[in-house]
Amino acid sequence: MNGFKVLQVKQSVFADNDRRAEELRQELKKQRVFLLNLMSSPGAGKTTLLSRTIEALDGKLKVGVMEADIDSDVDARTIESFGAKVIQLHTGGMCHLDADMTRQGLEALGTGDVELAVLENVGNLVCPAEFDTGAVKNAMILSVPEGDDKPLKYPLIFSVCDVVLINKTDVLPYFDFDMEKCAANIRMRNPKAKIIPVCARTGEGIDAWVGWLCDEVTKWKKP
Amino acid sequence: MHELGVLNALVHTVEGIVREEGLTEVEKIVIEVGELSGIVPRYIEQCYPAAVYKTFMEKTALELVVVPGIVKCRECGRVFNAAANDLYCLDCGGQNLEILEGNDMIVKEIVCR
Prior knowledge:
The complex is a heterodimer. Chain A is α/β, with parallel strands linked by helices. In chain A, about 40% of the residues lie in helices and about 20% in strands. Chain A has one domain: Rossmann fold, CATH 3.40.50. Chain A is globular, with a radius of gyration of 18 Å. Chain B is of the alpha+beta class. A three-stranded mixed sheet of chain B has the order 2-1-6, with helices on one face. A three-stranded antiparallel sheet of chain B has the order 4-3-5, with no helix packed on it. Chain B has one domain: hypothetical protein PF0899 fold. Chain B starts with a helix and ends with a strand. Chain B is elongated. At the A-B interface, β1 and α1 of A face α1 and β6 of B. Chain A: It comes from Caproiciproducens galactitolivorans. Chain A: This is Hydrogenase nickel incorporation protein HypB. Chain A: Pfam families: cobW. Chain A: Keywords: GTP-binding, Hydrolase, Metal-binding, Nickel, Nucleotide-binding, Zinc.
């Protein structure tokens, strides 16, 4: 075959990104910075929930936020008004962030004075799930109007999440959303996921969520 | 757009292998795409030329091998092709399925020198 040889590889196409993500995670461990990757569909309430979270933390943790969007800086302005350090990342049309883009984001944000860095990923349930960003924990928001069958339609994102926040519980009376069925659908994909019903608008469940987050940050900062 | 991002990741992964192995030319890559990976083979083929444009893989041929999406029903134990049956168990209609095969996208072989 003209000097060609066949190399048996058997590596995931994401192997390179996975390796870079792991390197980033190890560096964050040394710097004692906790990185949370927050994912959801567009409009599920990532920015509102994040604002509520910063409010509820009440200065207990130094927060830095990276807002990833295809364009505009409206989310960054909102978060900034809640007193967190924030930068806007433009993905230039890309539908997700990978480990390298996250690293660049963290460098631009500056993590010297940050204990909790939050990556607000692009609103999308497909691509962000495939790319390990280097985050310590993955969280996703599923909002009530999206339906309790979402975990069946987008299994991958539910399988990579450590915590699923079911947001907009205040509109439950207006939707045929079965909380138990939803939880069962999530557990089918991911038996270990922590499920917390919340409402960013009324503040319901925010304490439970912030409690979980603070515990995880404390665990991560231990040598 | 989804497939283009996946292919960018692929180019980086192959680039790493090329560097590690000290290869000079990659004639062809053989990629396995699982039926349950959420990645559409036809779109991979369409996006491929754009993803490798002006990279070291510009002249590298692409061969795709589709891997059947095989699952086991956690309710009744039946093993079947989930992609062909819309993720429902043929026997009991259950949706609590354990994926055995066809969940990922893998670089299987690199034809190179």
